[in-house]
Amino acid sequence: MNTQNFKVNNDKSIVEWIGRKITGAHNGTIGIKEGSFTFKDNQLSSGTFVIDTRSIKILDIEDAETNAQFAGHLASDDFFNSDQYPESIFEIMHAEPGDNNLYYVNGDLTIKGITHPIDAVLKIETNQGSATLQSKIVLDRTKYNMKFRSGNFFTDLGDTLIYNNFDLTINLVADINNNSL
């Protein structure tokens, strides 16, 4: 059996996020702490990716003080509680190959110590010792105890309502890990 192990390059990998509210949206990035995935006989067989919740950045707010306040709020218990839960983890449980380098993946996503199964489509391209992985995932933040200004839990929010779903666009670059055996 031919096995290839890939290690995610943190410096070249990033997760982009978009959160929406009634009056608009905010966007930014979150860093990857570590990650790896394995191909057996040229088929994705497993993988784990760790997101550093302390690395959340807001890209659409230019005022430094407002940006810092917003970043602090995202790190608070209203959202990611980054002091207590500095990592969010996605673990691939099952992968089905599709056409054009696509994989239909079932995995477990853990945020704030709460784990839920999610389905995702990953596009993985390998090329002479390296690989890229791309995916877009839409998550319901309330499943992970992020209820701040959610219409599911609060009434009369008016234009302060924050929508439950947020988008993660995942862009990972990985290299063959020859030290994994």
Number of domains: 1
- The number of helical segments is 1
Portion of residues within helices: under 10%
CATH class: Mainly Beta
Residues in β-strands, percent: over 45%
Q: Sheet with the most strands?
A: 9 strands, antiparallel
Number of strands: 9
Look at the structure and name the CATH superfamily.
Answer: Lipid/polyisoprenoid-binding, YceI-like
Q: The CATH topology, please? A: Lipocalin
Radius of gyration: 17 Å
N-to-C SSE string, H for helix and E for strand: EEEEHEEEEE
CATH architecture: Beta Barrel
Report the uncertain regions: none
Oligomeric organization of the protein chains: single chain
Overall average residue pLDDT: 91
Q: Structural class of the helix and strand makeup?
A: mainly beta
Cα end-to-end separation: 14 Å
Shape: elongated
Protein name: YceI family protein
Domain Lipid/polyisoprenoid-binding YceI-like: 5-175
Pfam family, one: YceI
InterPro entries: Lipid/polyisoprenoid-bd_YceI, TTHA0802/YceI-like_sf
